[in-house]
Amino acid sequence: MFMSVRCCFLETHNMSSLLQRAIATTLTGGGNKFPLFSITKTKSTTSAQPAVTLETATATNEVQKLQHAKAMPDNRTSTATLTDTFGRYHTYLRISLTERCNLRCKYCMPAEGVTLQPKSNLLTTEEIFYLARIFVEQGVRKIRLTGGEPTVRRDIVDIIAKLKEIPNLENVGITTNALVLTRLLVPMQRAGLDAINISLDTLKPKRFEEITRRKGWERVIAGIDLAVQLGYKPKINCVLMKNFNEDEICDFVEFTRDRNVDVRFIEYMPFMGNKWQTDKLLSFGETLKLIRQKWPEFEALPNGPNDTSKAYKVPGFQGQVGFITSMTEHFCGTCNRLRLTADGNLKVCLFGNKEISLKDALRNNISEDDLVALISAAVKRKKKQHAVSQTSTFYGNHLHAPPYQASPTYPFSSSSSSSIIHLLSSNLKHKPFTATAACFYSSDSNCNNLTHVDATGKASMVDVSQKPISTRTAEAKAHIYVGAEVARLIHSNNLKKGDVLSVAQLAGILGAKKTSDLIPLCHNITISSVKVNATLDLDGHMVLLEAKVRCTGQTGVEMEALTAVSIAALTVYDMCKAITHDMVIKDIQLVSKSGGQRGDFRRQ
Questions:
Q1: Residue 400, in any domain of the structure
Q2: What residues contact residue 267 under an 8 Å CB cut-off, 6+ apart?
Q3: Do residues 9 and 73 both lie within one domain?
Q4: Which domain of life is it from (predicted)?
């Protein structure tokens, strides 16, 4: 058996000696213990299909994408949690397993390098599995493992195997530089790996060393060939840069002639640490024109739902080519992707700078329902288009950004029956808070005795057992002055601790639930709903905090509402104190209450 399989391998086109050794080692090193793959050599066939023009393919693809992006899978367990305000249902989660990488690519890492976080700041393996399960239960069907470089994790095979045990998870993939793929691919396939993306920006060994600052090009090519032999159709991601590797565009297309691979050209996207160098950007249109000079028959293919790349193919070639046009033709309208960073932050947009720390929530013993609500809040803050699409226009080789504009924030709510997010209108603008005179009214204005002391003047909890059960609500508000610099950092989400407003909202909800633990004579009640809203008044240099609490019981929820805005304000202070201590929490007050024997109250 092994002899025949090995012969099939050795007949492979352009097989390197490194690949042959890797295969031989795999086959003779106990490979018969788990015979999960078989190899057969088949002829490449191209079925006759109607010609597809660029125009018809584009039109068809856009219709398909809009139809599929709005349609939710039949086997989903949740519809609301992962659906944003534009109807996009998110079924794809990318999980970064590590910040570390065994290459030093120039476009990825700034010249000054990066500072790695301490291990305690990163998600543990158990936390990764827990969060993955939560996302799958809410409707995620595909998980891709990224980094850094995910294969530097010693437990990468175990991670894949564990993820494959999650019910309803249909696909587990990996994005890798393929440097150690010949050693790890077979074990990863046995563990259940479904798909492989490989980052490779050049087919020239010396240029590879220049880009990555490391050797290893031969090992990468061997890894690609092994993946093809094992039955995968690897996607090869190539970042195109003008005056650097644009001379290899046709070489990459030629690479698909005898290999069943999908070469995907990615438009250059500079990130933090890299300066905006738009002169390096090689657009989709320019690349397509260059390819068609050599292969005029280079044709567009139909794309699947939520595809990020535009698919093309040279007729007769085994593989195909794709274009990821993040800079010149965004695909935000059909985006179904979420990202979980190695340090536990949820990013809903690759280009966005708003992140919510799921790790901090987990380590503060948040309940699973509240965690789902937090995820839903983040998804519903996803914008219609990514930052580059919203703030720039592509003209030739230049990007022009319009002036700064403020963006709305959204309230986060938690309910005992369900986790529902009520979004504020994008046109709702908050004015700086101005204190006004209070007007009180009550059905019993003569009740002036303190109720929390006994006849001797000692503290005593009120007995509410004889009170009727009724619906009680309370609203409270506060604000914290943070100053111009902190307000600017909150708006741009450039504080080291993350998204201040979202964390403050979550803290307010948790505070409301813990009120009886904080206030000695406060009753432990069952809260029906807590809604906390944190908004930034950029002109007034302050954060406005509002809370509304509801319950059905024998005592009111004024203290819960007041505690919610107080804890939210303190959280803002905590997250911003590294910048300044000149912050002031002001005007914590009850706005209204309803229900109970004393009647209603409203501040006017």
A1: no
A2: 240, 281, 282, 283, 284, 324, 325, 326, 327, 328
A3: no
A4: Eukaryota
- Residue indicated by tokens 């390096």: 280
Q: How many C-beta atoms lie closer than 10 Å to residue 200's C-beta? A: 23
pLDDT tens digits, one per residue of 266-313: 988 754 444 455 677 888 999 999 999 999 999 999 988 778 889 999
Domain harbouring 84, CATH code: 3.20.20.70
- Measure the CA–CA gap between 578 and 164, rounded to whole angstroms: 42
Q: Hey, what are 531's tokens? A: 């809604």
**136 and 19 share one domain:** no
Q: Beta 345-347 vs 355-357: how paired, if at all?
A: antiparallel
Residues 511 and 460 in one domain: yes
Mark whether 19 and 79 lie in a shared domain. Answer: no
Token pair 């937090």: residue = 374
Read off the pTM. Answer: 0.60
CB 263 within 8 A of CB 256: yes
Q: At residue 71, does pLDDT exceed 80?
A: no
Nearest by Cα to 151 from 216, 240, 228, 229: 216
pLDDT for residue 569 is more than 90: yes
Measured on CA atoms in the order 508, 510, 515, 518, is the torsion positive or negative? Answer: negative
353 and 423, same domain (yes or no): no
Judge if 35 and 86 occupy the same domain.
no
Where in the sequence is the domain holding 36, given as residue range(s)?
1-42
Measured CA distances, 82 to 86, 136, 432 (Å): 11, 10, 33
Give the integer Cα–Cα distance in Å for 553 and 551. 6
Q: Which of 574, 582, 587, 600 is catalytic?
A: 574
23 & 135 share domain: no
Give the angle 50-56-62 at the CA atoms, nearest 5°: 125
Rounded to 10°, the helix 500-513/368-380 angle is 150
Amino acid letter for position 491:
H
Cα 93 from Cα 337, distance rounded (Å) = 6
pLDDT of residue 23: 45
Q: CA-CA-CA-CA torsion for 221, 226, 227, 230, nearest 10 degrees?
A: 170
> Are 516 and 555 within one domain?
yes
574: annotated active-site residue: yes
Integer Cα distance of 92 and 413 in angstroms: 25
Quote the CA–CA distance of 320 and 324 in Å, as a whole number: 13
Secondary structure (H, E, C), 253-294: HHHCCCCCCEEEEEECCCCCCCCCCHHHCCCHHHHHHHHHHH
